[in-house]
User: Which sequence fits this backbone?
């Protein structure tokens, strides 16, 4: 099995950029440890390490917005990955947007540039 360079980070986490495999839209950034990496390879579904909950996290486990892996790109240092995914469900963002990058900086302010596709209160109970 391909080994990534988890030792390079003091906490054993490497960044995972997640993109829609058709449009290349960046959906989110999350972190992967060795366990999440192995589960992703085994199941074909995006797994991450939740830093806030300090546990393995299957994307879409509670929301139903699962990410099926189509391709995985690995950088030259083997310490950053890109998951090209098929986003099943309405959104990648837990705030109800298709992408976590739904805002942009404009003259020192954050401006929302996308429409919310679901209300998080209805999904995360």
Assistant:
């Amino acid at each position: 099995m391909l080994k990534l360079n988890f030792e390079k980070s003091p906490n054993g986490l490497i960044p995972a950029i997640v993109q829609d495999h058709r449009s290349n839209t960046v959906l989110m950034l999350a972190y992967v440890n060795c366990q999440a990496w192995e589960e992703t390879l085994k199941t074909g579904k995006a797994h991450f390490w939740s830093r806030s909950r300090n546990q393995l996290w299957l994307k879409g486990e509670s929301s139903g917005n699962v990410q099926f892996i189509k391709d995985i790109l690995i950088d030259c240092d083997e310490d950053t990955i890109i998951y090209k995914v098929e986003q099943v469900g309405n959104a990648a963002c837990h705030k109800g947007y298709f992408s976590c990058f739904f805002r942009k900086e404009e003259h020192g302010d954050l401006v929302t540039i996308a429409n919310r596709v679901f209300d998080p209160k209805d999904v995360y109970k």
The chain has a mean pLDDT of 94. The helical segments are 34-43, 120-123. The chain has two helices and eight strands.
